[in-house]
Amino acid sequence: MPSIRRALQAALDEHEGHLPFERFMQIALHHPDGGYYTSNIRGIGGGGDFTTAPKLTHALGRSIAAWLRAEAGCRSWKSFHIIECGPGDGSLAAEVMRSFGWLERRRVTLHLVETSVPLREKQKAALRGFNVRWHTDIGNALTSCDGRALLFHNEFLDAFPCRVFRKDGGGWKELHLQVREKRLTGVYLPPSRALPHSTAFDTDWPEGQQIEVFEAARGWMQKMAPHWREGAMLAIDYGGTAESVYHRRPHGTLRAYRNHQRLEGDAVCEMPGLQDITADVNFSDLSAWARNLGWRETLDRSLAEFLGPDTDPHLRDAGHAFRGMAFVTAGRSEANLRTAQGM
Full-prediction pTM beyond 0.85? Predict the structure, then answer.
């Protein structure tokens, strides 16, 4: 039995045959021996399982570079550290670095937070010749920068495992998986633990509405916060406010991708480790969690608005389906903050 199958069986046994979906997703995507991102990702783009914005246009890298340049200028940083979390195949980071120009690049140290061995090899090839350091943990990356850094990530938060809930009898039940006829199938049971902090629960949804909460992403933010002393972070992902994400989507947004085919329902669980699993990011949650950490929100725009005149027609609807949200932590004046907000 493959290692990932053994891990899933052990998790099922631990939970007496009813495995919380979040635990399944963690194993399926991130298990060190057989997880999709750690071992089996087939690539990004036409020959892989999915396509990301950096594969469609160079505009995103140029716009992120402009944002980074402005943030460094607000702090009068002559040299600075940039951290990308979940850098994929390295193409976005390479475009960002090229956008700085040769002289500017001498001021920049790029840090990539990556746990996937296959992806790290792709990143090394894409970023050959640049000043790059790799880390497996955001805390270590920030510590190596003395806590002062500019961070960005694209389609990173949606790779965290999420908890899945459905409105049932006026309350909420949580998606679990059980084995039925030798297949993993979903069943909604009382929550495995306390409901997470999410703005999605603030809406009076109709019976049967499904929602997803990236509680693990909140944990990641809480973990990095003590290490982050000064800087800004830009988050770009597929999603929107709680209301917009679930408008006319009674079955939620949970899905899987394999060979560019979108899979839903029990098909999401059919090939653990061999397909991507994701859901839309609730940016209302992201904003609320950041405020609780004392971070200040400075940007909330659609990707099309963030790119501005540089919007590429290849993005089609993605420019409005993706959002960018930025936060700052300590060490910034109100005057500089207003300047960046107006950029």
Answer: yes
